[in-house]
Amino acid sequence: MGIRSIKELDLKSKKVLIRVDFNVPLDEEGAITDDSRIRGALPTIQYAMDQGGKVVLMSHLGRPKGKVVKSMSLLPVARQLSELLGASVNMAPDCVGDQVKKIVDNLSSGEVILLENLRFHIGEEKNDPGFAKELSELGECYVNDAFATAHRAHASNVGICDYIKDTAAGFLMLREVEYINKALKDPKRPYAAVIGGAKVSGKLEVLENLIEKVDKVIIGGGMAFTFIKALGQNIGKSLVEDDLVDTARAVMEKARSRGVKLYLPVDCVCAPDPKSGRDAVTVTIQEIPAGLMGLDIGPASAALFSEALDDCSMIVWNGPMGVFEQEPFSQGTMDITRKIANSKALTIVGGGDTDAALHKSSLVEKVDFVSTAGGAFLEMLGGAELPGVKSLER
Ligand code: AMP
What range defines the domain where residue 66 resides? Predict the structure, then answer.
């Protein structure tokens, strides 16, 4: 069993129903503030058009929870897509129903239509078979290019595959699966995982799974303090998950017993809280003052982590090293971003905040692969089988 590529489908004159992820951020006026998700789907859309397909696009936007919410209409996306494709993209009034069916039946080869927000219908998130069947009637073949939703079993990415025989993955989906599989199954050694972010709880599966595959684990961000506490050190007011201190100890023991080198910060930038940057001080990890919290790795940690990454041939990175959104706590994340981006290793990066840090550094082009997904990237790295990928297997 495997997943077919869109290239293996005969699209000529067929209604090609494509699940894309157009869940773009909008400002208060409803303008798109970042269109990278639309750009990410362009190769698949353009290919389907070039092959003479009648292209029917569907996506969700925001969380309307089964109700029509005007501010969550995909209309601004249709306009932006039209501009990016240099071709007109019509907007359907809904994503199911007789009227939509009629519009889709009247499409010509190479034409594109965008259906209205899938989540205006409660059946989408409930993976309702009736809703999935209705969607399926809009395509003679189905392509899923929305990797970012693959960790959810919804009607448009899972249920629908019960009703359409010809299914395939789009180029974006294929690339995501290919690179995450490299991280899981095709290590280039030495291989390092760099894991940061706020909490251990969100990254536990990833840590536990990757420790079985990598040679080095580097832990930064707020989650590092649970590990530092597990070593018996004082962490002041730093973020900690007390219920996971034992788990952190077990992770360190697992790393030790497998010969995996585990790196924790040796210094940090502390302040009373993230808003009090003016009062920030850099201290060793052994000397965090009682009333302060660690909000970034310090320069000694950045140098240590960089040195550990020097000889690596493969690096997977998720999660910032500190509260990088707030000065003066971005330096550690920026140092590690530069190190990873300029590394000769195969670099695989994912997660919303990590992606934001990369964009902030303007080094995104230098990384081999940046996932468009947060949850799906983490779940797959954590060893889970994603329903939105599995449903494409034939
Ligand atoms: P995550 O979504 O788990 O990757 O966490 C990302 C968030 O972690 C970002 O918003 C950071 O501001 C936050 N973060 C990183 N380091 C720390 C820290 N030392 N203390 C508190 N929050 C942190």
Answer: 6-172
Q: What are the pLDDT digits (tens) for 6-21?
A: 999 999 999 999 999 9
Task: Decide whether any atom of ligand 1 lies within 6 Å of the 237 Cβ.
Answer: no
Nearest to 274 by CA among 340, 320, 339, 336: 320
What are the tens digits of pLDDT across the range 95-152? 999 999 999 999 999 999 999 999 999 999 999 999 999 999 999 999 999 999 999 9
Residue 67: count of CB within 10 angstroms of its CB = 10
Q: Are residues 311 and 287 in the same domain?
A: yes
Buried (b) or exposed (e) across 2-17, using 16+ Cβ within 10 A?
Answer: ebbebeebebeebbbb
Alpha carbon nearest to ligand 1 atom 15, residue: 322
Q: Where a domain ends, among 147, 172, 197?
A: 172
Are residues 122 and 206 both part of a single domain? no
Is residue 390 a part of any domain in this protein?
no
Q: Is 130 a catalytic residue?
A: no
Q: Does the global pTM surpass 0.90?
A: yes
Query: For residue 313, what are its two tokens?
Result: 């041939």
Nearest C-alpha neighbor of 315 from the set 337, 340, 333, 297: 340
* Count of the separate structural domains present in the chain: 2
Domain boundary among 172, 202, 225: 172
| CA of 230 relative to ligand 1 center, distance in Å | 19
Q: Which atom of ligand 1 is nearest to the CA of 354?
A: 4
